[in-house]
Amino acid sequence: MTTPVCTRATQPAAARPTYPSFSSYVQARGPVLMRAARSLTDPNDAEDLLQTALTKTFVAWDRIEDHRALDGYVRRALLNTRTSQWRKRKVDEFACEELPEPDPVPAPDPAELQGLRDAMWRAIMRLPPRQRAMVVLRYYEDLSEAQTAEIMEVSVGTVKSAVSRALVKLREDEELAPALFG
Known about the structure:
Layout: H1 22-40, H2 43-60, H3 70-88, H4 110-125, H5 129-140, H6 145-152, H7 156-172, H8 176-181
Helix pairs in contact: 1-2, 1-3, 2-3, 5-6, 5-7, 6-7
């Protein structure tokens, strides 16, 4: 059997009461234990902390031989529970009166998006047919380099170099650059 951890008592051992049931103990000592819980955490979390510690005490109620040392047992459960919570916590949460307003992200203008798509497609159409096919397969059809090489019946290295040259041409395209970079 385990004996509870005792803390310094304010009353002599003979004067401390024993409790016939768990509920009578909680009813009698609840306010004192709540103050102890509030001293360990913020008021919003104190009730949850105390409830968890009292649950642990309830589970061990039959094993606790000296009910005059219950306050020490519950305080130790409070401290151990709070320490465990603190160790597990990855992100601190802070309560606030008002939620911050998110920065509005302006919706893109559909006409500008369509203009960009049209400029991109015209630039792709100016590529040599083989480079155009590889760019379309890689980026529009979302195929891997190996799949593109298989379809085009070339090596993967050929796909890599041809797509690389095509992307350089697209970056340097006189019509596309103003549409992308303003």
